[in-house]
Each structure stands twice: as C-alpha cells, then as structure tokens.
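Example record for the data management plan.
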Amino acid sequence: MTVMIRRAFPFARCNHSSSAPRVFRRFAGTGHSESAHHANPVNESFGKGFFVAIAVIPASFAAIKFLSSSMEDGVSPLLTRVIDSYSVYKERWAERNTLHTRMIEQAAFDRNLFQSAERSPTFELRFPETFNVGSPYNVVAGHGGANLDKLMEHYQRENRECEERKLRKLEQRTRLQKEEREGRNVKG
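Corresponding structural encoding:
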C-alpha cells in the first residue's frame, strides 16, 4: 500500500536531508586592486537642461509682455480672452444644473402623488378559493365550505383603519411643518 502511494505521489515526499549544499552570499568585488583601473578626469559641460532653464526666464518675460500688450488698444489681453472662452461652460453647466433640479423636483412630486393616492379598499388575492380548499374526507355534514363574508369584512375594516391612521399622521406632519414655516417667517 505504501509503495503504491509513493509511486502515485512522488512529489509529496519531503527531503529533510542536511546534505544539501549551502550557498554562501558573495559580495561584489573580484579581489583585484581597483585603483589601477581609474580613468583620467574629464571636463563636463553644464548640459542642455541648464541652458534651456536659463533661456526660459527671458522668454517668459517676453511672452508676458506680448500677451498683455493689447491692453493699450482697449481689447483685453490674449490670455484673458483665452480664459474667458471657457466661461461658456459655466453657463452650460448652470443650465444643466437647473434642468436637473427641475427634473428631480418633478420626480419627487410624482412619487409623493403616487404614494399618497387613495388605495383600493380590497386586497386582491391571486386565488381566493384557497380558503375553501381542503380535504373532502372527515368533514362533518354541513361544514364543508366556509363563509368568507365575515373574513372579508374584517380585512376591509382593518385596511380602512390603517389608511385612516396614515392620513391622520400625514395631516399632523403637514400641520407641524406649516407651523414651523410660519414661525420662521415671523422670526426672519
């Protein structure tokens, strides 16, 4: 049995032998003297980046002078005109925000209208005969079908009371909000 397991899972064996060779860390260096291989010092220039940075300073002063030169003619500077060209976006965003606000307000009004609409006084059942379904065996004579009139009256009354409670709460809440608004108007 163990031979079969060893053949089936040869990779599952652990090799705990300490005869594995240890690899020691090697550090950079060849052991030769490195002082003999140094090159002679070379004169280095400042490079392109230095000269570009120095050239940017007078170029920026010239650009500012050129961009603000049209102020003398009564026309706004070029830079100001470029910035003002983006003010169209502000107007467009204001229109969008106004339209979005109107849409949200309309959606809130519609939702309030649908939620506060008068509901049907009856509950629609998918299969009202469920109350009459039962085993035909062991039923006492005369007691086969139930009279659902009292049951319907009970649920209609319960539904009516629930709707009246909701209406009273809504009227009370609107009355309190109206009183709060009138109180703010008197203070303001």
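Summary line stored alongside the record: Residues 105 and 111 are 10 Å apart (CA to CA).
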